């Protein structure tokens, strides 16, 4: 019996569109300069953009937000909530991941209409809640679903 499973993921073109739309939203909203990292379902960096004026560690922070969401399976809102409830556990996961987990808003999972995980977007440069808004705008601009980890109603 031969089993074949293909991971559904973000294309390079889609990742690039998300990154550009994220920054376009930020400019329209008057946000501080942002960095955006778009990862595929394997955690591979597919697109990265940083606006002029971003500070030194914005790439690492944006990528850490996206990797944290992918690695834990839920968006930054839930990561942030759990970090407050279980700081020792989150510290352990940060250590195990080599520091590639930033447990705050701004790390957003990307899903298709059926809920299939395609990747994640991480944004850094503004307040974390605004970073998240920009990521959501970028994801939804290409017709995909943003999963921030917010509690389901």
From TrEMBL:
Pfam families assigned: HbpS-like (PF03928)
Range of residues in the leader sequence: none
InterPro entries: GlcG_carb_metab_protein, PduO/GlcC-like, PduO/GlcC-like_sf
Recorded superkingdom: Bacteria
PANTHER family: SLR1406 PROTEIN
Protein name: Uncharacterized protein GlcG (DUF336 family)
């Amino acid at each position: 019996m031969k089993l074949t499973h293909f991971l559904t993921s973000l294309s390079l073109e889609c990742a690039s569109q998300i990154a550009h739309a994220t920054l376009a939203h930020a400019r329209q909203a008057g946000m501080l300069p942002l960095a955006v990292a778009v990862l595929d379902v394997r955690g591979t960096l597919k697109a990265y953009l940083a606006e002029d004026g971003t500070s030194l560690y914005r790439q690492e922070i944006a990528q850490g937000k996206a990797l944290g969401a992918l690695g834990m399976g839920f968006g930054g809102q839930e990561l942030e909530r759990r970090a407050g409830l279980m700081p020792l556990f989150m510290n352990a996961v940060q250590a195990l991941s080599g520091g590639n987990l930033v447990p705050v808003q701004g790390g957003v999972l990307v899903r298709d209409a059926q809920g299939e995980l395609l990747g994640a977007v991480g944004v850094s440069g503004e307040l974390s809640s605004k970073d998240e808004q920009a990521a959501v705008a970028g994801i939804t601009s290409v017709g995909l679903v943003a999963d921030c980890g917010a509690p389901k109603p």
